[in-house]
Amino acid sequence: MISYPNIDPIAISVGPIAVHWYGIMYLVGFAGAYLLGMYRAKRSGGLWTPEMVGDVIFYGALGVILGGRIGYILFYQFPSFVDNPLILVRIWEGGMSFHGGLLGVIVAMLVFARRHKKHLVDVTDFIAPFVPIGLGAGRLGNFIGGELWGKPTDVSWAMVFPADPLQLARHPSQLYQFALEGVALFCVLWFFSQKSKPRYCVSGLFLLFYGLFRILVEFVRQPDPQIGYLAFGWLTQGQLLSLPMVIAGVALVAIGFKGKIFPKH
């Protein structure tokens, strides 16, 4: 067993103001996406300008935050929301959903695409390789915060998380997700998209691999206590929400390579 590093989740504290590492990780994700977007824009042959990159990151940030919060409440706290709709704005209690954030980003990218007269999928193909930066940073934030841990296990790298009321040795599933959804997914998308690919392919690959990685990790991640397992003693809400991503990803990749339509200004 490995000792949990027990890092203070509060990075900076000045009087009553506290800045948590989880919030800093959001900034890392957005900053990383902006820098990589600027790098790619310079090599886009005029398809993307620095102003467009700034706009798309701003729209994406709104989509992530609003969609992530709304999605968490609807997907994981719906009964509580029905009893008390005000929990939607109680953001200090935490709670963000990747799948809600994804839907929020799609809506935000639709608004961006209409404003800049671009095809929606050309926009999502452009930003998809940058998203794993934020995903990986977010999972590190979960790990530092000692939340969203895995199931009990006897593997040699298991950890006991301070906030765990049972104080059991568990899978550090946050680090698994950092490695898969962050590092591995970034490498796949970044190198795949180095040269121009047919429309739909990069977005499809993102949906396919994220969905697969999330489904795999859910087998060793502790399910949300208010929901538990949905069926069979192993099916989780995260797996159920990720399955359509896998199906949609396969479909988009197939459509892309069949149609071979490349992005246009």
Set out the fold topology.
Blueprint: E1 10-14, E2 17-20, H1 21-42, H2 50-76, H3 78-83, H4 98-116, H5 120-127, H6 131-144, E3 159-160, E4 169-170, H7 173-192, H8 201-218, H9 237-259
Antiparallel strand pairs: 1-2, 3-4
Helix pairs in contact: 1-2, 1-6, 2-4, 5-8, 6-7, 7-8, 8-9
Overview in brief:
The protein is mainly alpha-helical.
What does this protein look like?
This protein is mainly alpha-helical. Helices cover 59% and strands 5% of the residues. The chain contains nine helices and four strands; from the N terminus they run ββααααααββααα. It has helices at 21-42, 50-76, 78-83, 98-116, 120-127, 131-144, 173-192, 201-218, 237-259, and strands spanning 10-14, 17-20, 159-160, 169-170. The strands form two sheets. Strands 1-2 form a two-stranded antiparallel ribbon. A hairpin with a 2-residue loop joins β1 and β2. α1 (21-42) packs antiparallel against α6 (131-144). It starts with 9 loop residues before the first strand and ends in a 6-residue tail after the last helix. The mean pLDDT is 91.
